[in-house]
Amino acid sequence: MSERPRLTVLSGPSGVGKSTVVAHMRKEHPDVWLSVSATTRKPRPGEQHGVHYFFVTDEEMDKLIANGELLEWAEFAGNRYGTPRAAVLERLEKGEPVLLEIDLQGARQVRESMTDARLVFLAPPSWEELVRRLTGRGTESPEVIERRLEAARTELAAEPEFDVTLVNTSVEDVARELLALMDVV
Ligand code: ADP
Ligand code: 5GP
Asked: CATH topology for 7-181?
């Protein structure tokens, strides 16, 4: 590889399929490193501490923020989420491709602090399909779905801020396009 790999940020409305695409990518290419975020959200069934997220208390999150241990953080639909800084910088120093899957507010912060990051927006084929996916996942209550859809309107409007937009019609196609953007073949 001729130059230091860029940090890739994958963002897009809740339910668009970010986790599904990333899981597909990593099944084929386990060498792609995905940052594990800290969150105050409660685990969904099957989610493991240290694998999907570091599940932390409000007090623990306060400390991570106060100690400057997060590269970025944001409040999303009633919970806080943040990217542990040290692990990301370590991987980038080693020249390894790094992927962050974070919300719009986080993507904006990364754009400010890591100017060579590539920001990728994952868009749904339509608003109706986004509602179908978010509802169909069956992991959130109707109120939480409502909050997430409200956030989704803001996120969709911010699409032009991103370097690249990928429409998630086919998980396989999007995963391939993302790998190509990250120079992983
Ligand atoms: P996000 O991580 O963006 O919140 P998920 O990956 O959890 O979204 O996906 C939300 C739902 O949409 C899941 O039930 C998933 O199986 C489904 N899904 C993801 N991508 C597609 C796709 N390309 N076509 C149809 N359904 C999809
Ligand atoms: P979920 O609760 O569905 O796992 O995630 C909700 C939203 O938070 C998603 O848009 C996801 O990308 C985002 N998110 C996950 N981790 C982080 C993080 O570390 N920072 C920020 N800013 N957003 C995150």
From this structure: Rossmann fold (3.40.50)
